[in-house]
Design a protein that fits this description.
mainly alpha, two-stranded parallel ribbon, 3 helices, 9% strand
């Protein structure tokens, strides 16, 4: 997971887009989230809820990487980052 984190820091938006293009799967250590309302700059109540829930899950396990800005809601093919960037 550290290698993925380092690559995302190094590559920025291009690295995140690569996750989307490659349809990278969520896992116990990797979670994708997006803002409830992308038109607003502030973090809303629902955003805080999901952020807290994800951070709590990571804190109660071996940790993980949260990529904020990728919508990975399940469609017919399971959770993957192919949904929206």
């Amino acid at each position: 997971m550290r290698d993925l984190f380092d690559a995302l820091i190094r590559d920025g938006r291009v690295g995140i887009q690569r996750l989307v293009t490659d349809r990278h799967q969520e896992s116990v250590e990797l979670e994708f989230k997006t803002k409830d309302d992308g038109t607003k700059g502030s973090i809303g109540k629902q955003d805080r809820y999901y952020l807290g829930k994800t951070l709590s899950a990571f804190a109660n396990s071996a940790g993980g990487l949260l990529v904020w800005g990728v919508d990975a809601r399940e469609k017919n093919d399971g959770d993957s980052s192919s949904k929206r960037f």
